[in-house]
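Run log, item B.
One chain of 322 residues. Sequence copied directly from the ordering sheet:
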Amino acid sequence: MHCRSANSCNRFRPYSVILTTKLTMRPLNKSASRVLPTFVVAFLSVLANAQTTTPTIAPATPVAAAVDLPKAEDLVAKSVLVTGAEAMRSHKSLTTLSGLEIQGMGIKGSVKTYLASPNRSMQVTTIPGIGEFLTGFDGTTGWMVDPINGPRLIKGVELAQITREADFFKDVNPAAQWETLTTTGSKEFNGIDCWVVAGKRGEDSATLYFEKTTGLVRGSEMTLDSTMGKIPVVAFLKEYKDFNGVQLPSITQVTQAGQTVALTIESAAFDTVDETLFALPKAIASLLLAETTASAEDDDEIESDSAAPVAPTAPAKPAAPK
């Protein structure tokens, strides 16, 4: 199918979830506005049955007693309990204001994130000297507007990602985020003794770290799609802070492609979101209308072609008389 306009072609461009070197005008990643708040909470969404393992020991070595690993579902339940995630059920929206810094590059900014029940989100990332990056999801349509690429609709894998992240109760019901999850062992993660949990959802996989003493999720390692291919990303939830009975990761560090983005929550407020925030910007509404119109025209063309009359077959030439 041919593209009727540049915008109709642009709707097929991929979308990614991490703020990266694009902010320094080196376009490693197409989604400069998909910053850390929704990315981080996705790491809390884990639930599955665990398996126990027995260390492999040389025959001459005395056999040590097998140590049962904690079930992944128990680790998740403890994490939900200690963070007070159940309190989210009593709220309808959450607004956070965070400071953002690309460490070692002198780039700083702010991120304002709006989440509303059941599945709407809006983020405004402001980088002085570069501009404002907007990303939203109204329950159906995902979109972004930035000063580098302009407006575009989010599609495919990226839309599935933002849909999951917009779930207001994802931390209350982590089972919705992963198909399977298994506790595989223990490891020191950024100086913290953690249980290691492997999660899988379709072709997506991640390694998650649960602090042994507190039960808090301390981070994740996973590979994300970008316009440059698959990129390893490591997130470290450095500190938690209580906001109206809910423990949120107040300091988060995400390392990608050799750069670390730090996000520090400065304030959080429940039930103050204005519903008009989730309305589609005019530029996005125009793109959506153009896409819908183009799709309808293509359907009409297909229907017209299938309904076109078949040219009559020429009558057979009479046989010559004998």
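Observations after the first pass:
- Residues 12 and 251 are 34 Å apart (CA to CA).
- The mean pLDDT is 77.
Flagged for discussion on Thursday.
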